[in-house]
Design a protein that fits this description.
alpha/beta; 19 helices; 14 strands; about 50% helix; P-loop_NTPase; coiled coil
């Protein structure tokens, strides 16, 4: 055996009482019984020992037992996972027991349990035993927890409880839970062997670097925006300094870092004589402003003319099209144009009329072609005009800002006693500005370094290869799924249909035979079809997981597959006699026994009401049979209540 199986499920009660359910490895194991005997609790008990957050054991179990455990076996290796059962009214217990080794005995009391640990540490131990690799990243612990595959995600491939086996939407255990489904879907490529720990870490780092690069680029664009407050105030100070002869005027496209450097150079200068504002500079600025306004008006006028031409062209096209349709009558007159329609005498006038109409058609067609040739050029011209208007308006804003600065600086200079006093005032403003804005223009991280890191990771990660592997896995699973589905009883529209499996999101497409119509899972429309789909998918996934040696135990548990066929009584079904429902159920049993024997290392636990006493395989595979006559149950009725259970 090369896959983990369960050898025992056991419960501990007060006074050293122990209830042990032994299972055979690599075989079908059946537990039957009437309602209320605790059969369905077995799935919840296994789930609880695999680290579920909440203990969902039945009230009777909580009142009469104090601990539960599961013994896992893989060859000579053994592992016992046990948990304390919380009293009624308490959701869970964080105390867990994990032990591993060979020939491990079943504990008969809490004192005999070995390996006491916390719930989180216990789950990590189980994951290491199963081979589920932990993917952690200290830089992003929340993301690591969201993605990291755990034993909780592996239960989706092992459990088929009664709330899933007939479900019209959820394919796997946990997919109907909003808090569990995203993680199951996200970790599926890992369990299907498509990605490894290394590729996951690399992909996560690549996503983080791309987000960081995008954030830094947005911040850089914001810092370099022409209308940023920092650049606006810095440019005003430098224009004042330029008019005073303290520095050269910086270019309009200067960055914040360049402006900061220029201000620091001004701050370090020794005060000397400068030049007062003169009227010629203001006059030049006004002349430049008038020229820009004229250019803007010309561009707007050209834009309006172009838009009008485009509108007229659209109307002209409609007229040409209608004229062309009218003139097409010449095609019908061509055959009768040479003779008079009344006396059938030759008529040259008819021929001339047809030729004239054909010439008109050619003229109309050429005019339509000319319109189509001119339209793209007009559209392109309109786009260039809009770009030119944007550029002129930006330039006009810059000129207006310089005029405001000149007027303000001129007024301030007149209020000063002399130019030296103005210089001192200006230097004080520069110093104050730099002190109040020390961090705004500081350069950010080297974006070229980030881009280089991203390119390096992109070279390591082959997304195309990942998609090929995922598609290959889905194709293999679909093949196993269709083969299994063909052996199970179905009704229309699923009779002899093919099934296609997709992993993200997990879905089944039903290819109807004959029509080749593609149906969704809700279209199956019958509990019998849903049962067959879920059973076939469970075995198909286990078959694929076994072939790739995935870190999932070779264990499947089904809860009551007979419900669609007949009432549940927990009695011998051979007393009912053969009918259509019983025959369908026998086909399911044939499939379960054959599919289990075909898959090496696969163990199946079937929880059932029905008991087929006339089927030797069924009788041999039955480990427990709790019926009304025996009065037996999962937790014996004579077990005392635990202290404080009420």
């Amino acid at each position: 055996m090369n896959r983990w199986n369960i050898s025992s499920i056991f419960f501990l009660g007060e006074g050293g009482r122990v209830r042990v359910l032994d299972l055979k490895l690599g075989e079908v194991n059946i537990i039957t019984g009437a309602s209320g005997t605790g059969k369905s609790t077995l799935i919840k008990a296994i789930d609880y020992c695999l680290g579920s957050k909440v203990c969902e054991l039945a009230a009777h179990v909580k009142r009469h037992s104090i601990a539960v455990g599961v013994k896992w076996v893989l060859g000579d290796a053994q592992m016992i996972a046990g948990r304390v059962i919380p009293p009624l009214g308490q959701d869970t217990s964080t105390k867990m027991f994990i032990s591993s080794g060979r020939n491990l005995p079943i504990p008969t009391s809490l004192k005999e349990f070995e390996g006491a640990t916390t719930l989180q540490a216990g789950k990590f131990f189980i994951e290491r035993a199963f081979g589920i690799g932990g993917v952690t990243d200290a830089s992003d612990e929340s993301a690591a927890r969201r993605w990291r595959p755990t034993v909780r995600h592996a239960t989706a491939y092992m459990f088929v409880p009664k709330d899933v086996i007939y479900n019209e939407t959820a394919l796997l255990h946990g997919l109907d839970q909003a808090d569990e489904a995203p993680a199951i879907i996200e970790t599926m490529p890992y369990f299907l062997g498509v990605v490894t720990q290394d590729t996951v870490i690399q992909e996560r780092r690549l996503r983080d670097l791309r987000k960081r690069l995008d954030r830094e680029e947005r911040q850089l664009r914001a810092r370099q925006a022409e209308d940023s407050d920092y650049k606006k105030h810095a440019m005003r100070l430098l224009m004042d300094a330029h008019r005073c002869g303290l520095c050269d005027l910086p270019p309009d496209d200067s960055s914040e870092t360049d402006l900061q450097g220029a201000l620091f150079r001004v701050k370090r200068l020794k005060i000397g004589r400068g030049q007062n504002p003169n009227e010629s500079e203001l006059s030049s600025l006004h002349t430049q402003r008038r020229s820009l306004l004229s250019d803007i008006e010309n561009a707007r006028r050209s834009s309006r003319a172009t838009q009008a031409a485009l509108q007229e062209m659209s109307g002209f096209e409609g007229v040409v099209r209608r004229q062309y349709e009218k003139l097409k009558i010449a095609e019908h007159l061509q055959l009768v144009a040479r003779t008079c329609p009344l006396c059938e005498a030759p008529s040259e006038r008819g021929v001339a009329a047809v030729q004239a109409i054909r010439q008109s058609i050619d003229i109309v067609r050429s005019e339509g072609i000319a319109v189509e040739n001119v339209r793209p050029r007009l559209v392109e011209h309109e786009s260039s005009l809009q770009l030119e208007l944007t550029r002129l308006n930006d330039k006009l804003k810059g000129v207006d800002e310089r005029i405001k600065t000149w007027i303000r600086q001129s007024g301030e200079a007149k209020e000063m006693d002399d130019l030296a006093q103005y210089h001192a005032h200006l230097m004080g403003k520069v110093s104050q500005f730099l002190e109040m804005n020390p961090a705004t223009p500081l350069p950010g991280p080297d974006l070229d370094v980030l881009r280089g890191q991203i390119e390096g990771l992109e070279a390591l990660i082959d997304n195309d290869a990942k998609q090929v592997l995922l598609t290959r896995a889905e194709r293999k699973i679909s093949q196993y799924l269709s083969e299994a589905f063909a052996s199970l009883p179905t009704v229309e529209p699923c009779i002899e249909a093919d099934l296609e499996f997709s992993s993200k999101p997990p879905a089944i497409a039903i290819i109807e035979k004959g029509t080749e119509a593609v149906l969704r899972l809700p279209d199956a429309g019958s509990d019998e079809n849903y049962l067959a789909i879920h059973i076939a998918l469970s075995f198909a996934l286990q078959k694929y997981l076994g072939k790739i040696n995935a870190p999932v135990p070779g264990f499947l548990v089904f809860d009551q597959i007979s419900r669609p066929y007949y009432p549940q009584r927990g009695e011998d079904e051979d007393s009912i006699g053969e009918n259509e429902e019983v025959l369908a159920m026998r086909r399911h049993l044939d499939f379960l026994f054959k599919a289990t024997s075909d898959q090496k290392g696969l163990q199946v636990l079937l929880i059932e009401h029905a008991y087929f006493g006339d089927d030797p395989r069924y009788v041999t595979a039955t480990r427990m049979r709790w019926n009304k006559l025996s009065g037996d149950a999962l937790i014996p009725l004579d077990w005392p209540k635990r202290e404080g259970s009420g």
